[in-house]
Amino acid sequence: MKIAIIGGGYTGLAASYFLSKNKKVEITLLEKEKALGGLASGFKEKGWNWSLDRYYHHIFATDSDILELTKEVNCKLNFIRPKTSVFYSGKIYSFDSALDLILFPHMSTIARIRTGLTIIFLKIANDWKSLEKITAEKFILKTAGEESWKVIWHHLFNSKFGESASEVPASWFWSRIKKRGRVFGYPVGGFDALTEAIVKKIDKKRVEFVLNTEVKSITKDKSKITITSNNGRFENFDKVVCTLSAKDFVKITPELPHDYTNQLNKLRSRGTVNLILSLKKQFLTDDTYWLNINDKEFPFIGIVEQTNFISRSKYGGDYIIHIVNYLSDDHPFFKFNEKELIKKFSSHLKKINPEFDESWIKKSWVFKSSFAQPVFSLNYSKIAPPIKTPLKNIYLANMQQVYPWDRQTNYAVELGKKVCNTILKSS
Ligand SMILES: Cc1cc2nc3c(=O)[nH]c(=O)nc-3n(C[C@H](O)[C@H](O)[C@H](O)COP(=O)(O)OP(=O)(O)OC[C@H]3O[C@@H](n4cnc5c(N)ncnc54)[C@H](O)[C@@H]3O)c2cc1C
Questions:
Q1: What is each CA distance from 40 to 9, 35, 161, 243, 252, in whole angstroms?
Q2: What is the pLDDT of residue 184?
Q3: 403 φ, ψ (degrees, to nearest 5)
Q4: 202: DSSP letter
Q5: Beta pairing partners, 217
Q6: How remote is the CA of residue 347 from the centroid of ligand 1, in Å?
Q7: Which residues are registered as beta bridge partners of 375?
Q8: What pLDDT is attached to residue 232?
Q9: C-alpha of residue 60 to centroid of ligand 1, in Å
């Protein structure tokens, strides 16, 4: 059975890994970039021992599918308890524990108690289906109260989901609170090392990795499915798995029926523009790894200081920060280069660390992706596309299908496993 997998991110890699255990399959994985790993891929500068992810990445202790995979492929993980904080009203506040919430001075005692109880409720609750009927905003207003919504949550939702923030279901909020622990895992060597370990374990007799190849179309007749790529390559397959966004799947698959494409085109997502700086000095001097910016005047939503999580000795002694943004794909930042972003961000970086000066910057990189965060709506479970599409033997598997969970490498691995089971069951 000849199977094509389009996209070499964690969904495509996991699908290849699990399918390749079956002796009857012959897989071709087509990836448009020069490396595998997708959003979780990284890069390595001269003098660094570890590669750095293009977008901040870590694994939660509850991420069972990816934890199991790391064991199977013999990739070692380090578990660390980094510090999470919030920048509010010109100051950094630690935001890791119940005590931090109690000590947070910008809410009344009642609001702090209600916020704490809401978090405890979401940690315990399992019935996410009833939570998808109500927006997160309404749920938080009802449980934690207006003060909590205004002070803590409103801006965080806005910065992640933009104009769709008020439509996000409480089930998404539940999944974020439910799964997030305080201990984070990180592959020794970076996510590139995990990708390499997965590839190493895959039987190369069964899987061919074709890089630098962008799939332009998937077409189908009675007996075969043809894939055409940008470099003129075309090949026939028995089955095709597409791991691109629903929008891109529609673009390259002209024979999909109209009612189905209409449904896929309604699914929304956000992009990301991530500026990485290597610095001469530590930026978040209180050792915060993850800083949420809770201030609508800021042109970014978070700072992730990688070297407050992983020792800077792995990156040639440099201090590394990610300056994070989730944006609609027509946002002007998608046209900005590193220098323009630094110019835009510099004065705000100074507000967080007044000592900061552009002379601290040794090097900068910017990474952009138009498909970075699915936006779920009320009752999303009813519209989430299944793996099987209306075209027989063509399958769709991407971040828009991992609901109620939020997009994560763990759910990409779980989805890859589901794709494998679906294909093997139907053949
Ligand atoms: C800013 C950010 C932070 C994140 N942080 C975390 C985190 O801390 N922990 C965590 O677990 N997850 C995190 N994630 C999520 C995680 O990266 C994704 O859930 C996961 O990588 C999705 O994998 P995927 O294979 O579904 O998609 P992708 O990684 O997007 O893979 C799709 C692949 O398809 C390729 N492609 C696109 N078009 C074509 C084409 N026409 N032909 C061939 N190939 C094509 C792309 O180049 C890409 O390699 C983060 C994501 C972002 C954006």
A1: 7, 11, 21, 14, 24
A2: 96
A3: -50, 140
A4: S
A5: 228
A6: 31
A7: 268
A8: 86
A9: 17
Query: Tokens 């998937």 correspond to what residue?
Result: 218
399 lines ligand 1 (CB under 6 A): yes
d(CA 420, CA 425): 8
From the CA of 13, give the closest atom in ligand 1: 25
Q: Indicate whether residue 11 lines ligand 1 (CB < 6 A).
A: yes
Ligand 1 centroid distance, CA of 8 (Å): 9
What is the domain class of 58-96+269-376 according to CATH?
A: alpha beta
What's the CA-to-centroid distance between 110 and ligand 1, angstroms?
Answer: 41
Q: Identify residue 283 by its one-letter amino acid code.
A: F
pLDDT at 317: 98
- The pair of structure tokens assigned to 362 is 């040794």
Cβ(13)–Cβ(70) under 8 Å?
no
Contact between 306 and 321 (Cβ < 8 Å)? yes
Give the pLDDT of residue 180.
85
331 three-class SS: coil
Structure tokens at 236: 């026939």
* Long-range pairs for 120-127: beta carbons < 8 A, 24 or more residues apart: 122/173, 122/174, 122/177, 122/178, 123/177, 123/178, 125/174, 125/178
Q: Pull the structure tokens for residue 138.
A: 């309404």
Contact by Cβ (8 Å): 383, 404 = no
d(CA 339, CA 156) in angstroms, rounded, equals: 26
Fold of 2-34+211-267+383-425: FAD/NAD(P)-binding domain (3.50.50)
Q: Which residues contact 343 (CB under 8 A, 6 or more apart)?
A: none
Distance in angstroms (rounded) separating the CA atoms of residues 225 and 239: 7
Assign 3-state DSSP to the chain and report helix, strand, coil percentages, each to 5. Answer: 40, 25, 35
DSSP 36-76: S-GGG-EE--TT-SS-EESS---EETT-HHHHHHHHHTT--
Q: Is the CB of 374 under 6 A from ligand 1?
A: no
* pLDDT averaged over 10-residue windows placed end to end, the chain, 427 residues: 98 98 96 98 97 98 96 97 96 93 94 96 96 98 97 94 94 94 95 98 94 97 93 92 98 97 96 98 98 96 98 98 96 98 98 98 98 97 97 97 96 98 92
What pLDDT is attached to residue 333?
Answer: 98
Reported ipTM: 0.99
Cβ-based burial of 384 (10 A; exposed 0-12, middle 13-18, buried ≥19): middle
| Amino acid type, 155 | H
Taking each helix axis from N to C end, the angle separating 64-72 and 409-425, rounded to the nearest 10 degrees, works out to 80
Q: Cα(411) to centroid of ligand 1, in Å?
A: 11
Q: What is the residue extent of each domain of the chain?
A: 2-34+211-267+383-425, 58-96+269-376, 97-179
